[in-house]
Design a protein that fits this description.
four-stranded antiparallel β-sheet, alpha/beta, six-stranded mixed β-sheet, 10 helices, single chain, 265 residues, globular, 10 strands, Rossmann fold
Length: 265
């Protein structure tokens, strides 16, 4: 039984099609990467799964979890799935968090909604999640602006995972962070995904990160799925011209970085 299956998903804004007939599935515990240039449909796909598309979007097709068709378009019904069956770590943690609410309360929201714990229990478990994602003790009572970018992203990960979702979507979760903090966040996602068995959809422009984090990869161009396969196979022997371009560009960037850092040492 698939953890998640997207069937013939099409997303339009007026006359513009941003995702065109996308179909794919993933198993429980599997890690799937989605790559492609900006505007290829990666984030729109992720938002469609959680029924969080911006106003004006017209959606065709279906999304199934454990073979159950999700009630897309019914926000009240979808709220039962968000946070418990599926969750998302967003690209920019500062805008994803409530600036007027301390961290523990933001982690407590999905706990109280989906685990039936009391406010006191939720506060205690929120503090436990802060520790689990490597936040300092004071972070639970802090506000988002009082934390660093890496710490805010750890809060986002705690919020996403505290409801024990079957599927976690990470949309460019490290793009706003410096290299050292990126590594820490990726290690954290990797560790907790392993511990919980959560299936992971990992969206990124960084092909090296996708190669390290995923089992299988989807390549999107202009809203279309142009290639998919095991991550190592796609990166080592890309078949589609667009994938070849992405891989070649990533290799050139990596070589240039090595040359630059070599000159600086």
């Amino acid at each position: 039984m698939s953890a998640l299956r997207i069937e013939n998903l099409t997303i339009r804004f007026g006359e513009r099609t941003v995702v065109d007939g996308l179909t794919f599935g993933m198993d429980h515990g599997e890690r799937v990467g989605i790559i492609g240039e900006s505007g290829s449909g990666k984030t729109m796909t992720a938002l469609a799964v959680l029924d969080l598309l911006p106003p004006g979007a017209r959606v065709q097709g279906g999304v199934l979890m454990d073979e159950q068709l999700l009630p897309l378009g019914n926000d009240a019904a979808m709220s039962r799935f968000r946070g418990s069956r599926m969750a998302m770590v967003f690209q920019e943690p500062l805008t994803a968090l409530n600036p007027l609410m301390p961290v523990w309360k933001q982690i407590a929201i999905p706990l109280t909604l989906h685990t039936n714990c009391t406010r006191t229990e939720a506060r205690s478990r929120a503090a436990e999640w802060c520790a689990r994602v490597g936040l300092p003790e004071h972070a639970a009572t802090a506000y988002p602006h009082q934390l660093s970018g890496g710490q805010r992203q750890r809060v986002g990960i705690a919020i996403a995972l505290c409801g024990n979702p079957h599927v976690l979507i990470a949309d460019e979760p490290t793009s706003a962070l410096d290299v050292t903090v990126q590594r820490e966040i990726l290690d954290l996602l990797d560790r907790i995904a392993n511990e919980t068995g959560t299936a992971l959809i990992f969206i990124s422009h960084d092909l090296a990160v996708v190669k390290a984090m995923t089992d299988r990869v989807l390549v999107m161009q202009g809203g279309l799925l142009v290639e998919q396969g095991m991550t190592n196979d796609v990166f080592d022997d890309p078949r589609h011209a667009y994938t070849q371009k992405l891989v070649s560009s990533a290799k050139r960037s990596s070589m240039a970085l090595r040359q630059l850092t070599g000159e600086m040492t």
